[in-house]
Design a protein that fits this description.
Layout (H helix, E strand, L loop, with lengths): L1 H20 L21 E10 L2 E14 L2 E3 L2 E4 L1 E9 L2 E11 L7 E9 L9 E9 L9 E9 L4 H4 L2
Antiparallel strand pairs: 1-2, 2-5, 3-4, 5-6, 6-7, 7-8, 8-9
Length: 164
């Protein structure tokens, strides 16, 4: 049992060290819904590639723009910050939007709500709405990454299916 615990601890330390060295985009709403948003005025351009055993390699691109800065109310930062985005998905374009309701502090996570891969057509949209809590783990100079927990729901893109 002690061997397993030590092995897990070493694995977490190695993983944490590797994740601190990685240059990632933790606020990208294309990739994973999070509770944090892109800083107002910043433009994030992403090109993503992926493949699976049953699919050819796909390349998708997207933009995310920090639209509104958050307010600080009662010492809580990031209230009302907003980002918008657009991505290619399949053969069409989809849109994303997210509002951060509460910003991250030293002890509390950020919380945001949003929609991703939204389109009014079938075939390439997922129409996901979500809420997510996101917290940076560890001190800033030795980050263990961002951890997110939340809930999402896929909405039908066909208005007739929604009424059934």
């Amino acid at each position: 049992m002690l061997k397993r615990l030590l092995g897990a601890a070493v694995g977490l330390l190695v993983w944490g060290g590797c994740s601190a060295a990685a240059e990632a985009s933790p606020t990208s709403i294309w990739n994973v819904p999070t509770g944090t948003v892109t800083e107002a005025g910043n433009l994030h351009v992403g090109v993503y590639t992926y493949s699976s055993l049953d699919r050819n390699v796909s390349i998708q691109d997207g933009l995310t723009f920090g639209l509104l800065p958050g307010l600080e109310i009662g010492g809580v930062p990031g209230i009302g910050a907003m980002e918008i985005g657009a991505d290619t998905l399949g053969s069409g374009e989809v849109f994303n939007a997210k509002m951060q309701l509460v910003g991250e502090t030293l002890y509390t996570p950020a919380f945001g709500v949003g929609g991703m891969n939204l389109a009014n057509t079938t075939g390439h949209s997922e129409n996901i709405v979500y809420g997510a809590f996101t917290k940076e783990v560890g001190p800033e100079d030795m980050s263990g990454g961002s951890w997110t927990i939340g809930y999402f729901q896929t909405m039908p893109s066909d208005p007739e299916a929604a009424s059934q």
